[in-house]
Write a structure and sequence with these properties.
The protein has 495 residues and is of the alpha+beta class. The protein is built from 13 helices and 13 strands. The protein has two domains: 8-331, di-copper center containing domain from catechol oxidase (Orthogonal Bundle), CATH 1.10.1280.10; 340-494, Jelly Rolls (Sandwich). Helix content is 26%, strand content 15%. The strands form three sheets. Strands 5, 6, 7, 8, 9, 10, 11, 12 and 13 form a nine-stranded antiparallel sheet that branches. It has a two-stranded parallel ribbon with strand order 1-4. A two-stranded antiparallel ribbon has the order 2-3. The longest helix has 22 residues, at 86-107.
């Protein structure tokens, strides 16, 4: 077995050894009771657990005995979203899962050293990159009689990743890799929070795209049907074996980002040694007990730090010249600069089957400053970047998509021009983040889009009133008019 995590498509087609042993290990983990800390169900519940939903979906029944509350309160429902803990928590989760699978393979008589592969879906040099790896689409194992656990999972979305216009989800890209700061309201890794489950802060750009997009594109979310794939929900995502390959690639993108010159990694003790309100916990690989971990443990030299065969293919990070040594991410200041609000709309928005429009009013001086900056050749240098913020997006649909436009032509209806798009996002985990009886009171999802280039184009086209911006939002989800999406506030921010 390889000593490093490798690209799934480089392992060979169909049933290569890595995927065959992965499938055999999963079959073994599924035999174990949910009270076993190394069982398939226990590990999935660490991400998110909803007893009623799992019963409804037939994952467990009402007679299934669950682990003691003293155990699950430490380990279940830990997934971090909309937080600067998103990446380190998932890194620790992946590391222990990989260790448990590897130990199970050895116990089954297989080779030692199994490593979790990554689905390198943004590798432009590989024509197969966007495709779900073949082993996840085969109905049976090589014996042609044993059901394949890699495929036997509800997926109602795409088998080859691409834009999904029906859900207003654009094609995945590497735009997040351009963000220089790890943490903050506008950042690579997410805003500063305490323990964040399901959502209490602002999603980092990597969590939006490609992370959230891939979840919903593969899981699916038919607007006229309540069925969604496991990958579309927080509560079921860990039950799809493809989840682990997807997150392995997200983790690799973080590793690649940290190798870029000029990026500023979080250095505050709140991140390194937190969260202070609830510690992260992992079951030991032999199931004997639990151990705590922090973000510090996931960095280079830490017990949960991974090793990848390649940080360049499909990451947008070029191979440095031979004369350049390894780059170590600079540890940024504890308090990174935050953009300020320069204007907001005045009403809550409710979006069903049809688009809805609102107006963001901007203070005169701020509007003049913004217009001047956007009219400059180098807007970032002249006045900082401009952002559109959608706060506390809530809805009952498991997932969906959303697209925001600035100053769309009057009477355009649904036929809106692409050159007015402010941003798009797959609303992965929407229902979970919106539950009012959840751990954090249903804060919903908050998104921030960089509209600097769009604002500059509007100025150049003479379609920019510095006092007010018209914002139009289109959403696609299962609820429609009967169960719409709401947005508490729409605002404009400037660095």
């Amino acid at each position: 077995m390889a000593s490093k995590r490798q690209d799934a498509w480089k392992l060979g087609p169909g049933w290569n050894d890595t995927f065959l042993w992965y499938a055999k290990a999963i079959i073994e983990l599924k035999k174990r009771d949910i009270t076993d800390r190394n069982s398939w169900l226990y590990l999935a519940a660490m991400h998110q657990f909803d007893r009623d939903l799992w019963i409804q979906l037939g994952i467990i029944d009402r007679n299934t005995a669950l682990p003691a509350a003293a155990d699950t309160k430490n380990t279940w429902n830990q997934c971090q979203h909309s937080s600067f803990y998103f990446l380190p928590w998932h890194r620790g989760y992946l590391a222990r899962f990989e260790e448990i699978i590897a130990a199970t393979i050895v116990a089954l008589g297989g080779p030692a050293g199994w490593k979790l592969p990554y689905w390198n879906y943004l590798n432009a040099t590989d024509p197969n990159a966007r495709k779900i790896p073949e082993a996840f689409l085969l109905r049976f194992l090589p014996d042609n009689k044993t059901r394949n656990p890699l495929e036997d999972v509800p997926r109602f979305g795409q088998k080859v990743l691409a834009a999904e216009p029906r859900l207003r989800i654009p094609d995945i890209d590497l735009s997040a890799m351009r963000e220089p700061d790890f943490s903050g309201s506008v950042s690579f890794g997410g805003s500063k929070t305490l323990f964040s489950n399901p959502d209490i802060g602002v999603r980092g750009q990597l969590e939006n795209v490609p992370h959230g997009s891939v979840h919903v594109l593969v899981g699916g979310t038919p607007p006229a049907n309540s069925d969604v794939g496991f990958l579309s929900r927080f509560e079921t995502a860990g039950l799809d074996p493809l989840f682990w390959l997807h997150h392995c690639n997200i983790d690799r993108l973080w590793a690649a980002w940290m190798s870029k010159p000029g990026v500023r990694m979080e250095a505050g003790r709140q991140w390194l040694d937190g969260p202070s309100d609830r510690a992260f916990a992992l079951p030991k690989a032999n199931g004997s007990g639990l151990e705590k971990f922090t973000a510090r443990d996931t960095l280079a030299g830490g017990k949960l730090h991974p090793d990848y065969d390649d940080l360049h293919a499909g990451t947008g990070v070029p191979i440095p010249p031979a004369s350049v040594g390894a780059v170590v991410a600079a540890l940024g200041p504890v308090a990174m600069a935050e953009p300020k609000v320069i204007g907001a709309n005045s009403e809550k928005m409710t979006i069903g089957d049809n688009p809805i429009e609102t107006v963001v009013k901007i203070a005169p001086q701020e509007g003049a400053n913004m217009a001047a900056a956007m009219g400059a050749r180098a807007p970032a240098a002249a006045g900082g970047r401009i952002f559109l913020k959608l706060e506390n997006i809530r809805g009952a649909s498991a997932a969906g998509g959303l697209q925001a436009y600035v100053n769309p032509p009057a009477g355009a209806g649904d036929d809106l021009p692409e050159n007015r798009v402010a941003g798009s996002a797959a609303l992965f985990g929407l229902a979970s983040a919106s539950k009012v009886d959840g751990q954090h009171g249903g804060n919903g999802i908050t998104l921030i889009f960089d509209i600097s280039d769009l604002a500059q184009r509007l100025v150049a086209a003479g379609d920019f009133n510095p006092a007010r911006l018209r914002i139009k939002i289109v959403a696609a989800h299962a609820g429609g008019n009967a169960d719409p999406i709401t947005i508490d506030r729409v605002s404009v921010l400037r660095d």
